[in-house]
Design a protein that fits this description.
The chain has ten helices and five strands. The protein is an alpha+beta fold. Strand 1 and strand 2 form a beta hairpin.
């Protein structure tokens, strides 16, 4: 499956907001969104003022693209997530976001074992984590309430994970997850709710409208 391999800072500039795709760099003065003052890639500043007001379709498309890029999901997979959310009871947009939150790579990121979702995806692919005692190397694996996610015993001596014990910030783990940093594991306390989807500025209703055209 094809995956975006160009500079990810261009994606943030295209959406004119920080998508936090590069971890700590997004919080530093090196952030491209701040340095370029929100100017989209390839856009002439003189032409920016002459741009027309964005259409409803344009706003819906941009919101869908923003969600895809935040969670690192390709179009076909994202469409499957939406189709599954539309079949379930409840609000489709909320169900879509909470399903994305349950992805294993996102859980690893939320627990603080990675600085970004792309880094978390790489760690999962390399087999550094296990779910309920079983090796899990599929980033799209969906966790459920009661599941445990932990660093594998063979990976804990690695310098990277030893350093995580020192840099893990306090108070950043969402309420639907519980972290035991010293044991290098976490547990899923409950299913995430819309209020638990923090740090992502998304209007899920626009995504629903995009796919309902």
């Amino acid at each position: 499956m094809a995956r975006y391999t160009d500079a990810v800072c261009k994606l943030c500039r295209r959406e004119s907001i920080k998508l936090f795709l590069k971890g700590e760099r997004c919080l530093s003065p090196k952030c491209a969104v701040e340095r370029r003052k929100g100017l989209p890639p390839g856009m002439d500043p003189k032409k920016l003022a002459a741009r027309r007001k964005m259409s409803d379709f344009g706003m819906q498309l941009r919101e869908k693209q923003k969600a895809r890029r935040i969670y690192g999901v390709m179009e076909r997979q994202f469409r499957r997530y939406f189709a599954e959310a539309s079949r379930r009871k409840g609000m489709t947009g909320v169900t879509l976001l909470t399903t994305l939150e349950r992805r294993l790579d996102n859980v690893v990121y939320r627990l603080g074992f990675a600085d970004s979702r792309s880094q978390a995806r790489q760690l999962v692919l390399h087999g550094h984590f296990e779910v309920n005692g079983q090796k899990a190397n599929i980033p799209s694996f969906l966790v459920n309430a009661g599941d445990s996610v932990s660093v594998r015993e063979t990976s804990r001596p690695l310098t990277y994970f030893k350093d995580r014990l020192q840099v893990q910030p306090a108070g950043t783990v969402p309420t639907w997850l519980r972290l035991n940093l010293n044991a290098m594991n976490g547990s899923v306390v409950s299913e995430p709710t819309r209020e638990d989807v923090t740090g992502v500025d998304l209007n899920e209703q626009l995504i629903v409208e995009f796919y309902s055209r």
